[in-house]
Amino acid sequence: MHRTLAIVVATVGLFAVGCGPAEPDNHVVLYTSLNEPTARAVIDAFERETGIRVIVQADTERDKTVGLVRTLIEERSRPRADVFWNSETANTIRLQREGVLERLDPPPTNAQRIAEQYVDPDGYWFGLAARARVLIVNTDLVDEDDMPDSMWDIIDPKWRGKAGIVRPVTGTTLTHIAALYEVLSDDETERFLTGVQENECHLPPGNGRLAQLVGQGQIHFGFTDTSDYRLVRNEGYPVTAVYPDQDSIGTLLIPNTVARIAGGPNPENARKLIDFLLSDEAESILAHHQRGHIPLKAEIDRPEYVLVPGEFETMSVDFAVIGEAVEARLQQMDARFR
Amino acid sequence: MRFLWPIVALLALLLVGVLPTALAMVDALRDPVQAWAALVDPVLWSRLVTTLGIAGATLALALPLGVMQAWLLMRTDLPLRRLLMMLTPFPLFLPPLVHVLSWFGMVRLGGYTAIVLVYVISFLPFVVLLAARAMRQINREQHEAMRLAGGRRAVVVDEWRQAWPAAMVGGALTLVFVLSDFAVADFLTSVGPSVTVYGDTLYAHHLALRPAGAAAAALPGLVLCVILLVWALRMRRRLGVSVDARFEHAPVMRLGWWRWPALAVAATPVMIGTVLPLVSLAMQTGSWGTLAQQASIASERMWFTLRIGAIAATGMIVLGLPLAALATRMKRRWMIDVLVFIPLAIPPLLYGIGLIRVWNRPGLDAVYVGAGAVIIAMIGRYLAFAYLPLGGAVERMDRSMFESARLAGAGVVARFWHVLLPLLRSPIAAAWCVSFCFTLRELDSLIMLRAGQQSLTFHLYSSVVFARQDEVAAIALLLACITFAPLLIFLMLSNRSLRFV
Amino acid sequence: MPNAITIDNLVAAYGNVRAVDKLSLHAAAGEHVVIIGPSGSGKTTLLRCVAGLHRPAGGRIACGERVWDDRTTHVAPEQRQIGMIAQNPGLWPHMTALQHLRFVLRCRGVKRSQRDAQAREMLTLVSMFHRASHRPSELSGGEAQRLALARALIAGSRVLLLDEPLGQLDIALRRELGPVIREVAGRMGATVLHVTHDPADALSLADTVVAVENGVITQVGSPDALRSKPATPFVAQVVRT
């Protein structure tokens, strides 16, 4: 009997020890779809400057934000997060629609210099550190003269079985397709998608994987994000990035977005963190990061290889509209690319 | 007193396993139209068929291969069989994608063949371990009777037949993991015609924020897995082997000259599943320096992972043992089986959602944002791996041992401490090791919990894209080491192969 | 009488099969009752009911004034203070012979300081002293049986249930241990219900012999009474051999 009691006490005790202390006093909770090491580069600077501890709940490449977005929605009735930092726009807009986000009024000081296109007109979210949708090309397999320079090259029969695009049901590729529907006509976009299928394009599960396959020479070229291109490039693979469609629709630029969670436990610290993420310093840190994020503000200190809008033509899109459309597009794409 | 422990355990099971599952699945009822649309979607069913095809091919290879492997390792005088048995379980504890990353990527295989091969390598140990356990139960009298009746051939046929239901339990567990996975298919069919599987549909529903659809689409897989598991367990129970104080193992078969070709056959899966990944990871890591550097960077995470895994594994034993004892006493023991298996068979993301709904409450913050939720998630998800071996062991115990204890005047507590527990020492140690290793493997449901981010597994996955290849390999190697450490210690101390069930 | 066993209209069933059918029996305190009967006649079930291991479907079992089983009562086996040797003795694989006996004494509340001496004494009585530190898997069939016997006797129970206790022993040991059982039981004043196939046991050890066939009693009497007037062909066959 005593031993039974001892076991119960020991188990509960063990569990209690396992739980450990939950949260420090002066802190802010950040949910981010970036992977933690990337986010850390900026957060460390914020912690140093403000003394506020940032508790990070990050994402892995594999999960592609699904878990994080569902968590935020599930916690809506009792939010545990203060700030959401998303690596793209679509999920932020959906969270806004789900009532998870809170308008920042007045807007953060550092938001003033950001181009209109990358800020929510109602003040729910703000853009920073963008990635461009580029064609990553294996320079061993593709000659200088043959270099693709347009999305339409993907469906050119000349490249049958040699080009790739991520299966467009997730992430920036889904946003990209949704953007095409907005910028081109429906018919044109459908023609592109049909072409992708008929031209035997490879459909890897993620942009990182696609960039890697191009680097390894298993695919000649394909669409990816500049951040993934940079990683493969840094590893020494023979690849180059082409900013496509410079003479027509331009290259799509997808910003990171930050927003405050409605009813979060530390609203004041949330504002401070958001303001910091939108600062020149943060943009510069992310530009110098090995993923080479593209600053959205002019005159930010950055490495030479990080091109900014103005140095290439960007596609003109309304992210709010795309965000609204993205779910329907997803359903469409999931059925099409089965 | 007699029912106190089982009732407490049952309540705990409801709290950590059943309640989260139920609260996640209830989404399907909130929007029946969406749920129905998801359920009758032909894409769902065609992908389910594809996945079942992959699972079927996997089992068609893994079942006979696994039973043969088990037979060679348990019932013959194969050289090095103890060593091979020790190395057998390892592939289970690495997520299949790690197998892919470790060496499969180099052998440019793609398409269905590659997917099936990866699954066979990853999950063959389920079949081998369970079949081996069944073969260990064959007693001398039975063996001799069979030998007299039909010679060596009859002995072999009988031994295979005896192992079959247990192997099916392994097959059912394999199905659970294959149905919830999509990373392997996605990764291996990146080039060439892509293969989309059942998991892709579940994922698409989550991605599209269709909770009712996600819950409904998970239903066919969940039902299928649970039915198969319960059926396989029933089959195994019908064999009704019992072990008492005077149990004698049947003698092993002498293979003679055939020992050497048989050794080559038996060593192959172990080489491919265990040795090759480790060697490959070690080679990719390159130097001790890299390993040491990553170990020092990740030391806090390693400690966290070890601590959490150990607490969770202990919790699984404390919970699994009374449940196993309760199940043996019940007529409808499949009901407990179902309750234990559901959280394992449900897609992890849904389980994570359920956990949030249960634990994100005022006053529970220390649990919810702390490591408590992680421990709970691990116990809830993987309790089956403690329950299975303990249940198997309790069932096999001859009832007369408990009856004689009762007649000697031993009450329920004395019987538990002095008869049940000492007899279960080895299965408990084995169940603890297995549970511990499975906790290290878990990522999907932890991704939704804040403290889960401190785990080494999470670190590995968040490094896969970001870090250099040698660093990733070093982290994977560290994870492998802390996975294998308790297993090796247990196997060496007990000097016997893993008593899985 | 504190340890007389009274069984009234006992019914015991396995599913639809009645193993014991309205059986009534009285064993006076200290009486040695031998139960004989062909295989499958319900003898073992009868003992299991008395032990509390099988719950009767009807009838009443009492020990002295205390009711063990009736429609509303069921006393758990561990509270009946019974010594029993079952056909499958259910030895504990992890305990040595000495530990078996010490464990029983512990369960029965014997002081720690006395357990060892009592256990060794009992092992000597069943000629097992030299095997005190051996586990069941290291014992022969006969030794295991003797250990089971020692375990049943050591508790000092007032009721002993013996189901073929000497079944696995050779003739010499049977002849030796039969009287031991009788002597120990007599010393304790225990009431004994003893199931056996062996006519010699039945006739030499019994105060009363009960013949059970198909779950009902066909004859009760002293060994002499059975010998002189067997009631059924089965009994006749037993007494003739």
Please render the helix and strand layout as text.
The complex is a heterotrimer of chains A (338), B (501) and C (241).
Chain A: H1 2-19, E1 27-32, H2 36-50, E2 53-57, H3 66-74, E3 83-86, H4 90-97, E4 101-102, E5 125-138, E6 163-164, H5 171-183, H6 186-198, H7 207-215, E7 221-225, H8 226-234, E8 239-242, E9 253-261, H9 267-277, H10 280-288, H11 319-336
Parallel strand pairs in A: 1-2, 1-3, 6-7
Antiparallel strand pairs in A: 3-9, 4-9, 5-7, 5-8, 5-9
Helix pairs in contact in A: 4-11, 5-6, 5-11, 7-8
Chain B: H1 4-25, H2 27-30, H3 32-39, H4 42-75, H5 81-87, H6 96-102, H7 111-136, H8 140-180, H9 183-188, H10 198-207, H11 211-239, H12 259-285, H13 288-297, H14 299-329, H15 334-345, H16 348-359, H17 365-368, H18 371-382, H19 384-396, H20 399-407, H21 412-423, H22 425-441, H23 456-466, H24 469-494
Helix pairs in contact in B: 1-14, 1-15, 1-16, 1-18, 3-11, 4-7, 4-8, 4-10, 4-12, 7-8, 8-11, 10-11, 11-15, 12-24, 13-24, 14-15, 14-18, 14-19, 14-22, 19-22, 20-21, 22-24, 23-24
Chain C: E1 5-14, E2 17-27, E3 32-36, H1 43-51, E4 58-63, E5 66-69, E6 82-85, H2 97-107, H3 112-125, H4 141-154, E7 159-163, H5 171-188, E8 191-195, H6 199-205, E9 208-213, E10 216-221, H7 223-228, H8 233-240
CATH homologous superfamily identity of the largest domain in chain C: P-loop containing nucleotide triphosphate hydrolases
Question: How would you characterize the largest beta sheet of chain C?
Answer: 6 strands, mixed
Task: Let me know the number of strands of chain C.
Answer: 10
**Superfamily at the CATH H level of the largest domain in chain B?**
MetI-like
Number of helices of chain C: 8
Low-confidence stretches of chain B: 495-501
The largest sheet of chain C has its strands arranged as 6-7-8-3-9-10
Average pLDDT reading of chain C:
86
Q: What name does the CATH topology of the largest domain in chain B carry? A: MetI-like fold
CATH topology of the largest domain in chain C: Rossmann fold
Major sheet size, sense and barrel closure of chain B: none
Average pLDDT reading of chain B: 85
Gross morphology of chain B is: globular
Number of H- or I-type helical stretches of chain B: 24
Category from helices, strands and their pairing of chain C: alpha/beta
